[in-house]
């Protein structure tokens, strides 16, 4: 008997919705909550997801701008952040994202005190540390995507240079 798995994806932007697609295609969660405070974006993504339901098994999927919808999540994937402005330093971006996380992370943990948090927001290593400190969770329950994106970009570039599939670059 396998217990059901609830995953919350925080952020209905491009990255968050790509994460949702991966969860759906690989059937990694029994229940998915897509949480975003931008209700207009949420409505648009909800319509797109329902249209895609003809091609993808949607299972139990919820869209919400209420923190309470995230309650009792096993995994919370934080894919939200402020978009970097032209000419903005990574430090300035970090400062603005920290302000956003100060509201977000404690609320997530209030509703899902037993969750694991995966951070994919940039700059990812710093934001993972911030999420860990704000969450009060043990270090083993808050982690980040780390250099995953950098590694896949590097594989793509090497594959292109040597005319091989990036999948074959190890």
TrEMBL record:
<keyword id="KW-0520">NAD</keyword>
<dbReference type="GO" id="GO:0004459">
    <property type="term" value="F:L-lactate dehydrogenase (NAD+) activity"/>
</dbReference>
<feature type="domain" description="Lactate/malate dehydrogenase N-terminal">
    <location>
        <begin position="5"/>
        <end position="144"/>
    </location>
</feature>
<dbReference type="InterPro" id="IPR001557">
    <property type="entry name" value="L-lactate/malate_DH"/>
</dbReference>
<keyword id="KW-0560">Oxidoreductase</keyword>
<dbReference type="InterPro" id="IPR036291">
    <property type="entry name" value="NAD(P)-bd_dom_sf"/>
</dbReference>
<protein>
    <submittedName>
        <fullName>L-lactate dehydrogenase</fullName>
    </submittedName>
</protein>
<dbReference type="GO" id="GO:0006089">
    <property type="term" value="P:lactate metabolic process"/>
</dbReference>
<dbReference type="Pfam" id="PF00056">
    <property type="entry name" value="Ldh_1_N"/>
</dbReference>
<dbReference type="InterPro" id="IPR001236">
    <property type="entry name" value="Lactate/malate_DH_N"/>
</dbReference>
């Amino acid at each position: 008997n396998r217990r059901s798995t609830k995953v919350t994806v925080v952020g209905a932007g491009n990255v968050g919705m790509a994460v949702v697609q991966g969860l759906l295609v690989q059937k990694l969660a029994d229940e998915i909550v897509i949480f975003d405070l931008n209700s207009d974006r949420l409505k648009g993504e909800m319509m797109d997801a329902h249209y895609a339901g003809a091609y993808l098994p949607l299972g139990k999927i919820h869209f919400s701008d209420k923190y309470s919808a995230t309650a009792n999540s096993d995994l919370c994937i934080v894919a939200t952040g402020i978009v970097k402005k032209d000419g903005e330093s990574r430090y300035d971006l970090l400062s603005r994202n920290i302000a956003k996380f100060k509201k977000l992370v404690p609320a997530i943990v209030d509703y899902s005190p037993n969750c694991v948090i995966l951070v994919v927001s940039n700059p990812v290593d710093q934001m993972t540390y911030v999420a860990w400190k704000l969450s009060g969770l043990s270090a083993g329950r808050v982690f980040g995507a780390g250099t995953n994106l950098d590694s896949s970009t590097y594989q793509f570039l090497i594959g292109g240079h040597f005319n091989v599939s990036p999948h074959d670059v190890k």
